[in-house]
Amino acid sequence: MNAPLGVSSMVRGLPIFTEDGDRMTSVIAYVYKNHSLAFVGTKSGKLKKIRVDGTTKNTLEYEIVQVVDTGPILRDMVFSVDHEHLYIMSEKQLTRVPVESCSQYETCSECLGSGDPHCGWCVLHNTCTRKERCERSAEPRRFASEMKQCVRLTVHPNNISVSQYNVLLVLETYNVPELSAGVNCTFEDLSEMDGLVVGSQIQCISPAAKEVPQIITENGDHHIVQLQLKSKETGMTFASTSFVFYNCSVHNSCLSCVESPYRCHWCKYRHVCTHDPSSCSFQEGRVKLPEDCPQLLQVEKILVPVEVIKPITLKAKNLPQPQSGQRGYECILNIQGNEQRVPALRFNSSSVQCQNTSYSYEGMEINSLPVALTVVWNGHFNIDNPAQNKVHLYKCGAMRDSCGLCLKADPDFECGWCEGQSQCTLKQHCPAQDSHWLELSSTKGKCTNPKITDINPVTGPREGGTKVTIRGENLGLEFRDIASHVKVAGVECKPLVEGYIPAEQIVCEMGEAKPSQHAGFVEICVAECKPEFMARSSQLYYFMTLTLSDLKPKRGPVSGGTQVTITGNNLNAGSNVIVTFGRQPCLFYRRSTKHIVCNTTASDEGFEKVKVSVRVDKAKIHQELQYEYVEDPTILRIEPEWSIFSGNTPIAVWGTHLDLIQNPQIRAKHGGKEHINNCEVQNSTEMTCQAPALAVDPNHQSELAERPEEFGFILDNVQSLLILNKTNFTYYPNPIFEVFNPSGILELKPGSPIILKGKNLIPPVAGGNAKLNYTVLVGEKPCAVTVSDVQLLCESPNLTGRHKVMARVGGMEFSPGMVYISPDSPLSLPAIVSIAVAGGLLIIFIVAVLIAYKRKSRESDLTLKRLQMQMDNLESRVALECKEAFAELQTDIHELTSDLDGAGIPFLDYRTYTMRVLFPGIEDHPVLRDLEVPGYRQERVEKGLKLFAQLINNKVFLLSFIRTLESQRSFSMRDRGNVASLIMTVLQSKLEYATDVLKQLLADLIDKNLESKNHPKLLLRRTESVAEKMLTNWFTFLLYKFLKECAGEPLFSLFCAIKQQMEKGPIDSITGEARYSLSEDKLIRQQIDYKTLVLSCVNPDNVNSSEVPVKILNCDTITQVKEKILDAIFKNVPCSHRPKAADMDLEWRQASGARMILQDEDITTKIENDWKRLNTLAHYQVPDGSVVALVSKQVTAYNAVNNSTVSRTSASKYENMIRYTGSPDSLRSRTPMITPDLESGVKMWHLVKNHEHGDQKEGDRGSKMVSEIYLTRLLATKGTLQKFVDDLFETIFSTAHRGSALPLAIKYMFDFLDEQADKHNIHDPHVRHTWKSNCLPLRFWVNMIKNPQFVFDIHKNSITDACLSVVAQTFMDSCSTSEHRLGKDSPSNKLLYAKDIPSYKNWVERYYSDIAKMPAISDQDMNAYLAEQSRMHMNEFNTMSALSEIYSYVGKYSEEILGALDQDDQAGKQKLAYKLEQVITLMSIDS
User: Whole-prediction pTM value?
Assistant: First the structure.
């Protein structure tokens, strides 16, 4: 509340909006068209949009936008000048948010119901937008700003039969603007025709015969389509309503036909459903109402005994009289899967009878079987049975083995007991002369000879109250029969109505027994106590005295849940036990003669000792037993507070009173699922538990740590510890092991360690001292284990032969495969002796030969020695080189992968990516800028371009335009690519249309290719047509999402791996050659001595943060060092956002405090014989561990070259060589020629002098090595990068990618190529394979592999480019079907991957066949997908600028294009030439 100065009354604020959950952190407001709009930022990073139209009642929160991912929105928000955007700040980002997002609403009602006052419905454009953005919005009914102004549509009739064609439909429209430009009626994808506008009505014609949808039975009797009105002015659908095509003939019963909501009639005599009643045979045969249908009426139960011949009479109505030539009636009964047909007689229209027949079914386990009954006439015309009448077949004798059970049966069955045969039968099946047949209704209907088969319990207390269950046969049919005639061991036992089952069971309650009574039989009389109605049990019933002696445990928690065992004698007597501890019941669990077990409940009396009381039936057992309720246990701490997803790691728990708990358990709940594990109590304050597992899906296991939703203990009934609030228990991902190798068998020598590789082997716990308890078994024997994060080292036990290896940790076990330990083979003594003798003889022989030889060779010795020294020298160097190459080949690839894990992937945004592919090398293309036209021409040009856009969107024009351009001689290859890219940028928002045009152009190209007798395999090989470049661009648009989600990651990993592997060894700064390379052309073929240094670099962005260690080579030039430092410091920063090496100086901070600027060239640079060598770290003698810093470029430095011009020219020359970013065509163009500096005649070099200069002296020959020896380094590099190449190829050539489906575009285009091949009768699989390879891998993927800078924000140097070219060549070879014969003269890059290419080829073939087997994509699904892609990237390019660029070709070839349009019939009908002339007039400068 505020009080203005000098005023006594307060100014009170009126709250118009309150928020409890998500606290407000900022607010800003403005007025738009008489609406006050407030924009509120919140603590969770949301922006709430609120409309205030008065006091509290009229406040509407109409939209919430999540602006910031984490953290709150800061206080300062500000509008853009035009109030169309709002600038919002958080801790880490500045975001521009539009004040309205009308375009998100897709219908008029959503748009106007959103509450956003900026939004209205632009009717003919069918979009939600601001009024000022809607064309001609001032005209009536073109822009709706209230809900009641939305377009409505009704159609009459609103349904027709599928057999009606070309019906006139009248559409009544409301709120539609004038449609002078015309309107089209569209029935979804069935048909489209012109509509006739008559006032507020529009007349349309329903589709013709071939366009009406097929309606099949599974989908019901109707098909709903959207009848849409499309404006010819805008080409957009602006209104739609549902229209129904129905199909009466789907119905095959009268009731379903006439009860259909459509105009369906039933032809009674033809048994068909039709929409046209005149097609029925007779007038009286037409049925329109359900009550007129032939149908069976409801009848009471139809009972038919088995094997008895009997007719079945059924009531019905409207039964048709079969006409001449039609068959009569039949009844069909389906008995246990077998159909039984019985002739039937129609008495009249309301009665039918199935003739005399007997029926039967299998087995005696069912006494009554309901059977479905159908009445048909004329063979298969069903009579409706709406009441679902069934026939019940029954057998009297089934499951009724005694007289009592027989007479208990349903009286309607008319079953009775045939005494002579002792079975339950119908009366006619019991022979009258020698048997008496008992039935329930007869006066003498009582069963004799009752029998007792079982009594339970057989013991009980004298005090009575025991409920005794007596089971037997013929135990009366009514309760009154046995109500007063039951005695147990001589004591009256009162029968209970609720326990009585007629004829089978009596339950009675015992009275009190006298002390003299000890045991006896059970005796009963049924109705009267005559001998034939009396029964006596064979078992005895005993009276017992019950005693108690002890209970344990004698104490338990006050919350209950303790299982207490009470000991004593005869405790299993009687029927009911009640145990109480003080006032609390102890819930009965089980008992035996000596024990009663029960579970305590929570005490409401606090901590105290209570009396234990036990009652059995009416007996109370007297014995002084006491139980003590004590304080509940508590948990004080648990350690460690982590486990792995599979649980079962040990946890120590400390607390109080833990020894009270009998069965302690630990629980964790996650994702709604609970897991429990067991604990073991050590003493009252300690217990150990096995961690419960966490409920995570094993197929989608997270790589991140998870916290359970609930974590706690189940300690008997203690509720307070079910969820521990004070714990931060965390679950880490399970360790994952790799299999030994594809064969699963690892071969070892005895004593060699077994190495199991994997990941997550040590959980990343904060303290860092986490250890998991691993057990590794080789066969049955355990081995000692040493653990690191990525491998287990297991000292193999003293075994030989083949054994299974099993690793266990927590609750999981994994076998990486088998290990085969080869045995040492000791030799026998005779073998050793014979070998020694043979060896001795051999030595004697050799010595003799040597002595003879030495005499002859003394003369040539001196010559040999000289040669020998030279050879030794060369050989040792060759050996050293081979050894190094071998060592490198064996280097573990983990070094590389661990370096790559941390970096994020700097994907380019969609626009930059598409521009780099569509228009390579052009940075600021016109299609990214607004159209630049002089003001006085702007309106005309824009009008002309809009007209031109309509032409481009006309398929006839566009195809004619492209074909005409391609037929011009002066239309170059470059022009073709440019036109294709410009057309695709214009059609980015209409990809369905673009795809249609592309398919047409490709089909034409295939026809042309085959007509010109070219080999079919050459199709799509080179970009010689607009269609081929359009295809590349089409894939570029549609595979962006796939690149981001799947293929981008392995491609980026490969790029990084190549870059890092190259930089591990020397790279010549001038020639671009490297020690590590995949390309022979870029391989340093000399021995370069170098050392790896680790420099500590001061972070230029934050001087106070810790220094960054950077690996550098002492032979690197200063520019190379700067670039490596920038790579290390700005590891996660995209290339374009990093400082440039050329703008920074490298400062060496020496221990003495001196600082020195290091440069590639300065006054210390060495010059020998016109060769100037670039400065390296070795030149400056920078030691390992030195501190360096990158500082902004100084104007002059104390050790700079005096003659600055020399320095600048030479420096710029080699910097240009290093920073080569283009995509050159040949490897030669990437090797810069070393030309002398024109001013001084000095040539620059770094690691190798270019051999073309012939400076090598003859004397050097001896020390020179055969350069081919260095080719082994190609192998070392290839081996290190193999995994990354495999990963990339596997991702590209597999149809399932990490859960995301194959991009629709690929399947769709491959199917199109297969269709074209079928059309042209091309069945050669090689041709089809080649078409697909030329279409996707060679047109799109090779481009991406050679130029990753098209996808990522990175810098690619010439050595990386050369290596990527080798990978791309391998990729191309993998897609080829032809066999390459390789020999020693083949290029090294082909030889390098020769062994891998066959398996890559298999991948490609499998990939193509998998795609072919996938279900085809319907045009509807594809169009929906294309429309979605168009919508996502609607405004990426400036269409006007692109149209203007395309138009420049119209200007150049206008006569040829107009001529082609004049000759085309369809173009003539649509007056396309005339429209193009209009465009040319508007666009001409002099008009």
Answer: 0.45
